[in-house]
Amino acid sequence: MDNSDRIEKKILLRAPRSRVWRALTNAEEFGTWFRVKLEGKFTAGERIRGRITHPGYEHVTMEVTVERMDDEKLFSFRWHPYAIDPKIDYSTEPTTLVEFRLQEVAEGTMLTVVESGFDQIPSERRAEAFRMNSQGWAAQMENIRRHVTR
Amino acid sequence: MSPAKAIASTQVRDAAPLFAALGDETRLRLITRLSSGGPGSIARLSRKSRVSRQAITKHLEVLSAAGLVRSSRRGRERIWQLDPKRLTDAHEYLDRISRQWDNALERLKSFVER
């Protein structure tokens, strides 16, 4: 993976395209598998937010701005990736674009997810994500820091 | 080599100079200051410190050699900051987010296929 700007995923879902579309664009259904309790509906051009329900991340509020909802083909939104520190105001920072593309295939639906724009994300934010890794040096250093400053 | 082994071996190789640089009270305090207060000049970093500015500069040079901090010029001042490159890696960050997508899409799969 030499492209540092984007992540791309492809998954075959054995379900009709309309079913997948609903699971993506109905905020309540989206929340079921994504693990977030969204308040309101996905509407193109509008912001929606909600609490993450993923164990260990319940303190995190997720916020996305929907870009496109095109006819069971493309659903896209912008958000702040890995914005998990409630003490940080991420709102002035660059966002990444998440695109879900649906394609009908014989076995069901081919879903492609692309998240792009990571090159614009400040390196401090990348470092923070790394710090969450208990194996990372940042975590080790944080332990040392706590140890010496208490 | 497996990714886990590659990481382990890199960590071991990088560990010695890193901990040598950190194995000093003044330098650890400098790291702490830079991490909580953000980038700073020698003047700010040596404030309330019993150590002289010259000594602080030397300690910063050691941290810089270990890749933990870097400096830039702002007018006549030198501004020091933590160097996140040593502490992070774009791939590690993307891998993390990538794994989150894998997990989320697996849950989506079982959700729509049931």
Layout of strands and helices, then pairs:
The complex is a heterodimer of chains A (150) and B (114).
Chain A: E1 6-13, H1 17-25, H2 27-34, E2 36-39, E3 47-52, E4 61-70, E5 74-79, E6 96-105, E7 108-116, H3 123-131, H4 137-149
Antiparallel strand pairs in A: 1-7, 2-3, 3-4, 4-5, 5-6, 6-7
Chain B: H1 3-22, H2 25-37, E1 40-41, H3 42-46, H4 53-65, E2 69-74, E3 77-82, H5 84-87, H6 90-113
Antiparallel strand pairs in B: 1-3, 2-3
What report would you give on this structure?
The complex is a heterodimer of chains A (150) and B (114). Chain A is an alpha+beta fold. Chain A has 4 helices and 7 strands, in the order E-H-H-E-E-E-E-E-E-H-H. Chain A has helices spanning 17-25, 27-34, 123-131, 137-149; strands at 6-13, 36-39, 47-52, 61-70, 74-79, 96-105, 108-116. Chain B is an alpha+beta fold. Chain B folds into 2 domains: 3-82, Winged helix-like DNA-binding domain superfamily/Winged helix DNA-binding domain (Arc Repressor Mutant, subunit A); 85-114. Chain B contains 6 helices and 3 strands. In chain B, strands 1-3-2 form a 3-stranded antiparallel β-sheet. The relative contact order of chain B is 0.11. Chain A binds chain B through residues 1, 4, 7, 9, 11, 13-15, 19-20, 23-24, 29, 32-35, 81-82, 111, 113, 115, 118, 123-124, 126-127, 129-133, 135-138, 141, 144-145, 148-149, and chain B through 7, 11, 14, 18, 22, 25, 28-29, 31-32, 35, 84-98, 101-102, 104-105, 107-113.
Major sheet strand order of chain B = 1-3-2
Q: Assign the CATH class of the largest domain in chain B.
A: Mainly Alpha
Strand composition percent of chain B: 5-15%
- The succession of helices and strands of chain B, N to C, reads HHEHHEEHH
Number of strands of chain A: 7
Q: In percent, how helical is the residue content of chain A? A: 25-40%
